[in-house]
Design goal:
The complex is a heterodimer of chains A (112) and B (112). Chain A is an all-beta fold and 112 residues long. Chain A has no helices and eleven strands. In chain A, strands 2, 4, 5, 6, 9, 10 and 11 form a seven-stranded mixed beta sheet that branches. In chain B, a hairpin with a 4-residue loop joins strand 7 and strand 8. The chains are: A mainly beta (112), B mainly beta (112).
């Protein structure tokens, strides 16, 4: 079946603008994760959803970052008042509860 | 000290040789361990996971875990140029969901 789908694949925005990144997980996967990967770095955990609730938001770097998930499916990561240090690849992953993660192709965010 | 540490490389090996990738972790409570492969510009893909001390083999890949030493490794036998990628070690501390903490990755280059 279809894998994890993320959109847009690339986003260029001006500093100070808000951006929304979308993730459509694999059907039936109850767990959804957002990670961030800066150039040459490993993956940094941002937030975990189980269904529509987010029991672990510990990785969100500031209150400019927020995320929601609706219908136990699609998730949106919103970054308000973007800064240049927000430039990174934002990766979404989904899984059955404790199974291994399946990653999407990511959204490359560039803040100019 | 980073929670998951890997040598950044590059690790250069000739085609047909064994590539040995190493990872150490700091949290003794870590319960499961994962190796992901990431080609340049692509999303991470799962190669192997291991939960118990010892070796686990899957085709040309062998994962090794030593919880006493807080050490996990990945061996790639008969390395091929197509194995050239960044290999990410990830650790799950448990807690009922699969929040993975990633190392920064080791870049492997297999030359003909």
């Amino acid at each position: 079946g279809a894998g994890v789908s993320q959109s847009p694949s690339n986003k260029v925005t001006e500093k100070g603008k808000d951006v929304e990144l979308r993730c459509d997980p694999i059907s039936g996967h109850t767990a959804l994760y957002w990670y961030r990967q800066s150039l040459g770095q490993g993956l940094e955990f941002l937030i975990y959803f189980q269904g529509n609730s987010a029991p672990d938001k510990s990785g969100l770097p500031s209150d400019r970052f927020s995320a929601e998930r609706t219908g136990g499916s699609v998730s949106t990561l919103t970054i308000q008042r973007t800064q240049q240090e927000d430039s990174a690849v934002y990766l979404c992953a989904s899984s059955p509860l404790t199974d291994s993660l399946h990653f999407g192709n990511g959204t490359r965010l560039t803040v100019t | 000290q980073k929670e998951v540490e890997q040598n950044s490389g590059p690790l250069s090996v000739p085609e047909g040789a064994i590539a040995s990738l190493n990872c150490t972790y700091s949290d003794r409570g870590s319960q499961s361990f994962f190796w992901y492969r990431q080609y340049s510009g692509k999303s991470p893909e799962l190669i192997m996971f291991i939960y118990s001390n010892g070796d686990k083999e899957d085709g040309r890949f062998t994962a090794q875990l030593n919880k006493a030493s807080q050490y996990v490794s990945l061996l790639i036998r008969d390395s091929q140029p197509s194995d050239s990628a960044t290999y990410l070690c990830a650790v799950n501390r448990g807690g009922g969901y699969n929040k993975l903490i990633f190392g920064a990755g080791t870049r492997l280059a297999v030359h003909p």
